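Attaching the record inline, Q. Sequence:
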Amino acid sequence: MSNEKFFSKKELLKPRNMILMYSRGAFPMADDSGVIEWYMPETRTVIPLNNFNVPRSLKKFFPSSNFEFRIDSQPIEVIKNCSHREPTWISDELIEAYSGLQKLGHLHSVEVYVANNLVGGLYGVTYRGAFFGESMFSLVPQASKCALVKLIERLNEKGFVLLDVQYQTEHLKMFGAKEISFDEYSNLLVESHRKDAVFN
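Structure, as predicted:
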């Protein structure tokens, strides 16, 4: 498949249709006008769950941090925080669609708190043994990085196969993220479909 937009229909924002799209390797993004399209790039970025890296500075930071971590307590709030940037691909309509995925048990978040205040986190969508990472945010230094470490730990504990992070960034490179062809990615998808992993 090319990395061009291939279709956009409101019907696809229904929860079960969204999961079908994710299971095939597609993901949604809103453009500047708020129109939501589905994308399936030829090159994908994954963090290998059996060969990831935790930056040395983060290993030193963890023991002294005052972070509290929670799972799935406020996934929609995490998404809203992730959307507070310009430009953003997370539209109000997409947030509403994610709420539908939450009701089906496919939307998940790792949250970081300080003094009971949400200061960072990430969210994604699961289907069987795959976690499709969508976005992260940080209001204090290191919060999103620590959330990512906690996510990787949890995915390994629960027997997940695939951590899809869509596109490569310098931030993700520190954790061992690598770009792979869509053929390689499809093989990982097939393997993940064989796993009946449960995130929480």
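The chain has one domain: 10-193. The mean pLDDT is 93.

More tomorrow.
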